[in-house]
Amino acid sequence: MAKTPGTATSSRRKRADAPASAVDAIFNAYPNPVRSKLKALRRLIFDTAKATKGVGALEEAVKWGQPSYLTAESKSGSTVRIDQVKAEAGQYAVYFHCQTDLVETFRELYPELRYGGNRSILLDAGEKLPEAALRHCVALALTYHLRKRKAI
User: Fold this and answer.
1) Measured by CB atoms within 10 angstroms of the end CB, which terminus of the chain is less buried, N or C?
2) For residue range 48-107, what is the model confidence (pLDDT) as tens digits?
3) What is the pTM assigned to this prediction?
4) What is residue 48's three-state secondary structure?
5) What is the pLDDT of residues 29-46, one digit of tens each?
6) Strand partners for 95
7) Which 3 state secondary structure label does DSSP give 66?
8) Which candidate, 54, 41, 140, places its Cα nearest to that of 94?
9) Strand, coil or helix: 71
């Protein structure tokens, strides 16, 4: 079961509270409307993890200065990160590990989305979030290692 942002079980409270505070600080520093879009994306990631078999609880942390979502409990997937695109106002992105074939797979499945090389899906704060496509892409990332283990 995925933890909602900012909550923790009593046995892991100390560990979970520190990253939540750091992540909250990052979200609070984003300009609107990017902040609201990134918060919607955060909810989508947690909801997708909860609905995806084999993922288990997500750990929310800061990696490379970005809110990051790890399958620390199940080790089922690759880390998903989100952030604003600093070089382009009003832009934000979902980042994936560049040494996987995830973005290549997403390009084949969703050619209508915009991509940043082999590491991200680029989004515009002025446009509607492509929820169905993003849910599928996030689910594929959060189960990446599960699929690789089954292929061996």
Assistant:
1) C
2) 999 999 999 999 999 999 999 999 999 999 999 999 999 899 999 999 999 999 999 999
3) 0.84
4) helix
5) 999 899 999 999 999 999
6) 81, 120
7) strand
8) 41
9) coil
What angle separates helix 144-151 from helix 131-142, to the nearest 10 degrees? Answer: 50
In this structure, the chain runs to a length of 152
3-state class (DSSP) for residue 128: coil
CA distances from 52 to 64, 74, 80, 137, 148 (A): 26, 12, 15, 12, 16
What is the arrangement of strands in the sheet containing 114-116, beginning at the earlier edge strand?
59-63, 66-70, 80-84, 91-95, 120-124, 114-116
Q: CA 50, CA 73: separation in Å to the nearest integer?
A: 13
Rounded distance between C-alpha atoms, residue 98 and residue 69, angstroms: 16
Task: Tell me phi and psi for residue 13, to 5 degrees.
Answer: -55, -50
C-alpha to C-alpha distance for 76 and 91, rounded to whole angstroms: 29
How many CB atoms within 10 Å of residue 90?
Answer: 15
